[in-house]
Each structure stands twice: as structure tokens, then as C-alpha cells.
Amino acid sequence: MAATATEAADTAPEAVTVIGLGDMGSAIARTFIERGYRTTVWNRTAGKAAPLAGAGASVAATAAEAAAASPLVVVCLLDTAAVEQVLASLGDAVQGRVLVNLTSGSPAQARDHARWAGEHGAAGYIDGKIMGDPPYVGTPNIMFPFSGSEQAFRAHEPALKELGTVAYHGEDAGAAAVEFMAQVAVGYELLIGFLHTLRLVRAEGVDAEEFAGRVAASMAGYPPLLESMAKAVKTSEYGPDLGSLNVQAALMGDMISHRESLGVEAVRMREVKRLMDRRIADGHGDQGFSSLFELLPPRA
User: Fold this and answer.
1) pLDDT, tens digit, for every residue of 24-70?
2) 65-100 pLDDT, tens per residue?
3) What pLDDT was estimated at residue 148?
4) Same-domain status, 35 and 143
5) Domain that holds residue 36
6) Is residue 29 domain-resident?
């Protein structure tokens, strides 16, 4: 018979609780179990805990009991609404515990959760995000950006490193969410553009898979370009990266015409061309692509 949550807390030199046993939460709990951590689990649908109990986890009857069982409490739920429901049920069970929230959410929500943890006596709050899929938990191929209490993070860093590649982004509890959302946004922007481009090359009779291989090879040149563009934005010193806008605008016109002749979506290209034309009209045609940053809407 599996040990009770209280017994696990009393006897385990390294104890951790995992609240939320979806695909990701279950992978996290299983990783802790396999690495020798005395692991307590809880899930709203109790049946999801059965495989983990068979692997050696202690199953708590309530979320509050689960939180009280370990000094490190990891929450991994579907969304922020689910997190807030669970937090409301925990009350002071988090007193003296370090709360780690790995649920997707905004920076503002992370800061709210940090305040809640402080008001309820938690030993620290760490917000984390997950960049990878459940099969990669426990390997270097999944990344976990963290932020929040540095003291709490350093104290439990060995346990958190069991889950994958970790990075600490500072005391601001919202910083990990900023990193996560920005990284994911870059990925989606790239991938939707790639899909439109595959539509283009297929329309011209080019093998999409072979084209993708050539694109993948060319991606090696992008890291230094990204770094130079970020430096230009930081300093407001815009060199002619990718060539001057005067030249790029002409190329952009050709690209738009090509896409439209094949019935392929060109909305992003038209937007880029509009920004280039504005920047040139303002007398900055000798600058490069990074200077378009100056025309993007600032924070309200």
C-alpha cells in the first residue's frame, strides 16, 4: 500500500509535491519519482493518480493535504483559472512551503500569484514556464525558465534541474512568463510565415520537403543577425542590416507581386513594405531592416 502524504513528509529527506496530473504534470511527477524524490501527488480527477501511486507516489486526498506534505510544491495545471481555484483551496497549507507554478500564464498573473503566496506565508514563490513536450521531461531537450524568489530558487535548484534545462531570470515573478511568451511568439511568427512560403513554393512546383532542408541549413546565419538587430534596437544605431531600406523596398515589391500572382497570402509582406516606405519617406532609406522598430506602436 502506498504511504500516506503525512508519512511521506515525515520520512523523506527530499520530498516534493506535484499538483495537477495532466500529461505534463504526470511526466513531472514520474521524473521526480524515478530520480528518488519522495513524491506526493494530487489531481482533481483522482483516477489520474493511480499509475503514479503504482510507481511509488503518495496520493493526497486534497490539494491542501498535498501542499502540506512537502517543502517544495509544484503546480502544473491547464490554465490560470484552474490555478486560482486550487490556490483558493490551499489557504495556509502553503505556509513555510516553496510554491512553484509551471502553468502557462501572463507576467501579471505570475506577479499576482507571488503576492498571494506571500500573503499566505509561503517560504517563496517561483514562477516557471515549460518549453517542450511531456516526453522530454527529465532530459536537456526541454527548457524551464524560472523567476521569482532567488533564495527559494537556489535552495531547490537541484530538484528543478531534474526536470530539464533551467534558467533563472530574476526576482520579478513575471520575468519567466515574459521570456516564455516572447520565445513562443517568435516561433509562431516564424512558422506561420514558413507555411505561407511552403504554399508559394508548391504553387511553383518546388518540392516542399527539399526546400525545407535548404531553409534549415540557411538558419545557421540567423543568430548573429538577431543579436545585431537587438543591439541596434537597444542603441538606436541602425546600420544597413540586410541592405539599405531603399534596396529592400524594391525587393519587397517583387516578392508581393510574385505571391499575389500565385494567389498566395501577402498580408505580412505588404505590412513590411508599408513600414519600409514610411521609413524611407522619413529620410532613413540608408538604414536597415532593424530600423522598422521605430515605427512599431510603443507601449500605451
Assistant:
1) 999 999 999 999 999 999 999 989 999 999 999 999 999 999 999 99
2) 999 999 999 999 999 999 999 999 998 999 999 999
3) 98
4) yes
5) 5-171
6) yes
CATH number of the domain that 266 lies in? 1.10.1040.10
Q: Which helix (H) or strand (E) holds 60?
A: none
Show Cβ contacts of residue 235 under 8 Å, excluding neighbours closer than 6 positions: none
Output the pTM of the full model.
0.86
The residue-averaged pLDDT of 124-152 equals 98
204 CB burial (10 A radius; 0-12, 13-18, 19+): exposed
Same domain, residue pair 142 and 53: yes
The pLDDT assigned to 2 comes to: 47
Query: Strands (DSSP E) along 53-169, which ranges?
Result: 58-59, 72-75, 98-101, 124-128, 143-148, 165-168
Q: Do 51 and 78 meet the contact criterion of CB atoms below 8 Å apart?
A: no
The torsion angles phi and psi of 194, rounded to 5 degrees, stand at -65, -40
- HSE toward the beta carbon, residue 169, CA cutoff 13 A: 20
Q: What's 70's DSSP letter? A: -
CA–CA separation, 12 vs 6, rounded Å?
A: 10
